[in-house]
Amino acid sequence: MAAGHSPAFLALVNEAKKRIKQVVASQVPEILKRNAKAKLIDIREESEFAAGHVKGAEWIGKGVLERDIEAKHPDRAEPLYLYCGGSFRSALSAENLQKMGYTNVHSVDGGWRQLKDLLPTE
Questions:
Q1: In what helix (H) or strand (E) does residue 29 lie, and over which residues does it extend?
Q2: Is the distance from CB of 60 to CB of 72 less than 8 angstroms?
Q3: Residue 2: its pLDDT value, please?
């Protein structure tokens, strides 16, 4: 069991990962450099974001993502890159956004744990 997560949770995440697009954290700096329209969204808890996040990342917590995403990002083709601590919550969130019609959403595999060493942080 990864990081003490329950088998049912891990099964849910693994199923979601089969249906979503993922990028590894090491690809994100180049993606952001190449595509000015790409948005990096931190979906961790607000307290996690406040403790440190990628500079320029937008916070929309997993608990309110589906409720708030359309107002903040109405273009369902906009490239969105979601990250959490590792990639479990971002995978589940990416799957939900796909269900909402978002076509260019990605989960960042490695999440904050790796991004903090690859990009400037705040």
A1: helix 28-34
A2: yes
A3: 62
